[in-house]
Amino acid sequence: MKKIIRILAVLMVSVGCLGIFGQTAIAANFSNLTLQSSPVLAVEYRNPADAKLATDYGQKVDLNNANVRFFRQFRGFYPTLAEKIVANAPYKNVEDVLDIPGLSDTQKDRLQANLDKFTVTKTSVVYSGAGDRFNNGQY
After folding, report:
1. Whole-model pTM?
2. Looking at the predicted structure, is the pLDDT value of residue 2 above 70?
3. DSSP string, 64-89
4. Is pLDDT at 7 greater than 70 in this prediction?
5. Torsion 12-15-20-23 (CA) sign
6. Taking a C-beta distance cutoff of 8 angstroms, is the pair 86, 68 a contact?
């Protein structure tokens, strides 16, 4: 019985291979093909995240909406100072970040030196919802 199954299997594989190699390609002629144009309704949709990126938020670090990883670009901010900044938000203006309780003189100097790289916008759920400001899932 096993011998018959082996012979059938070899025969089927052989016929299958012959079928693949025995086919000829047929070229299609697309020279007479015409496409009809149809009107397209163009609607621009900007989600809240994209709209915010078009403001200062896209150029500077927003103290009210940025997560702790945004502060990695500044020497001495991540993770300790960045966590303090995020934990004490929201801020009314950029200078309010200097009033965080418990800052050391070194941390205040670092903040003062980088105030021009920060901005403050209205807190947005798009960026700060579900605890993403502390852990945004990027490892």
Report:
1. 0.57
2. yes
3. TT--GGGGGGSTTTTTHHHHHHHHT-
4. yes
5. negative
6. yes
